[in-house]
Write a structure and sequence with these properties.
The protein contains 6 helices and 2 strands; from the N terminus they run ααααββαα. It is mainly alpha-helical. The protein has a single domain, classed as Winged helix-like DNA-binding domain superfamily/Winged helix DNA-binding domain (Arc Repressor Mutant, subunit A, Orthogonal Bundle). Strand 1 and strand 2 form a beta hairpin. Helix 1 crosses helix 5, helix 2 packs across helix 5 and helix 3 packs across helix 4. The longest helix is centred in the C-terminal third of the chain and has 22 residues. About 20% of the residues are buried.
Length: about 140
């Protein structure tokens, strides 16, 4: 068996591969509907607090500004979100989830639970809290 290059065992590469694995598991369990993990995160954020601005969604999800704008645009086009200008600032949109968006959210929540369970299987149960805390520190770039 060939020896892997050192870069293939680096945290950067391993996190990328773990992300690919997570995305693949999620996609497998949402079935034929077009819902990505990032779209699910946006739906989850908006469902948690109706009327969020795209900046609020960006802060809640950690997704960059241009990607958030594209995700919201696509979810509006697909009928999952509604977007209206705010009265307070006509340059801003208030984003709300639709009935169709709630259906997609339910499908995504189920797929997410199944994918997370499968993803964590290789991690011993006693180590999962520490593992998740370490991931949170890495994802947020700070101490939890």
């Amino acid at each position: 068996m060939p020896r892997a290059a050192k870069s293939l065992s680096s945290p950067l590469h391993l996190l990328h591969r773990a992300s690919q694995q997570a995305d693949g598991l999620f996609s497998r369990h949402v079935g034929d509907i077009e819902l990505t993990p990032r779209q699910f995160a946006v739906l989850e954020a908006v469902a948690g607090q109706s009327g969020l601005s795209q900046t609020d969604i960006m802060a809640a999800t950690g997704i960059d500004r241009s990607s958030t704008a594209e995700l919201v645009r696509r979810l509006v086009k697909n009928g999952c979100l509604q977007r209206r200008r705010t009265r307070r600032d006509t340059r801003m949109y208030a984003v709300r989830i639709t009935a169709q968006g709630r259906q997609m959210l339910a499908i995504g929540a189920s797929a997410s639970r199944i994918a997370e369970d499968a993803l964590l299987l290789p991690v011993p149960e006693k180590q999962r809290p520490a593992f998740l805390e370490a991931l949170m520190r890495i994802a947020t770039g700070s101490d939890v």
